[in-house]
Design goal:
heterodimer, A: mainly alpha, 2 helices, B: mainly alpha, two-stranded antiparallel sheet, 7 helices, 4 strands, globular
């Protein structure tokens, strides 16, 4: 999810326009980044899959 | 027209009067770390260490070329007291740090085997340090797309690929392939330094 978020944001920020990540207050881009990281961490915690390798 | 930070950084690039003796002590610490791994026969860790160091040199040369192409600023510039400044965004302290970073990464893989998670973690920590340096006025970003509000770009292109390259080197199926991978980047760095630095004088 975080990787997909990064690709979308990178395109939006560099091709579409200037889309800064703001923290005070958190804007939509920062909010969705936090959500993507939370989903990835939650998924890893829930599955407790592979313990080694690239992921 | 160079930015003020760029001008100050360029003033101290390869200025011998900047030299300070602690650079020799730092060099000894770096050599000790590598000697420790060589003593244990851990050439995979040695190669991972060199991989990150060479990856940083690649980025630093590109950074200097961005300054040359734009005529305004590199992606990052370093100012302030240093024992020696190699390039507009690279001083000897940073270079020695990166010479150790790959060894740290390889050793931490025993505790955190996931290559990507560890690389991402170290990259985020590194960018957090950069944010502090940026706030301290010794590390300067100019472009909006390589700046505080675009920090994921720095995480991925400024650090993450260093560690993933080190992992690729570390996990090589044979010593021959491992050193081919490290050597390949070393050759690219040397050629870039010779062509753009010695040849064109752009570094």
């Amino acid at each position: 999810m975080t990787f997909i978020w990064f690709v979308i944001w990178l395109v939006a920020n560099n091709v579409g326009g200037h889309e800064p990540l703001l923290f005070n207050p958190v804007n939509a881009w920062t909010g969705t980044l936090i959500l993507a990281i939370a989903l990835d961490l939650g998924s890893a915690h829930a599955s407790r899959g592979r313990r080694s390798g690239w992921t | 027209m160079h930015t003020d930070a760029t001008r100050r950084a360029l003033e101290q690039v390869r200025d011998p009067s900047q030299f300070k003796w602690y650079a020799v002590a730092l060099l000894a610490f770096v050599i000790y770390a590598y000697a420790n791994e060589i003593e244990r026969g851990r050439w995979d860790i040695v190669a991972a260490g060199l991989a990150v160091w060479l990856a940083d040199w690649f980025n630093e040369i590109i950074n200097a070329l961005v300054l040359q192409a734009s005529g305004t600023a590199p992606l990052w510039a370093t100012t302030g007291p240093t024992a020696y400044q190699f390039l507009v965004g690279l001083n000897v302290e940073i270079s020695f740090m990166f010479a150790l970073a790959g060894i740290v990464y390889a050793k931490l893989l025993r505790a955190i085997p996931s290559r990507l998670v560890l690389a991402l973690g170290l990259s985020i920590v590194s960018v957090a340090v950069e944010l502090f340096l940026h706030a301290s006025g010794t590390f300067h970003w100019h472009y909006w797309w390589w700046n505080v509000a675009s920090f994921p770009v720095i995480v991925v292109f400024g650090y993450l690929w260093f560690y993933l390259f080190a992992a690729w080197v570390y996990d090589a199926p044979s010593a021959r392939k491992r050193w081919t991978r490290v050597g390949g980047l070393a050759i690219i760095d040397v050629v870039m330094a010779l062509v753009f630095g010695v040849g064109f004088g752009w570094l």
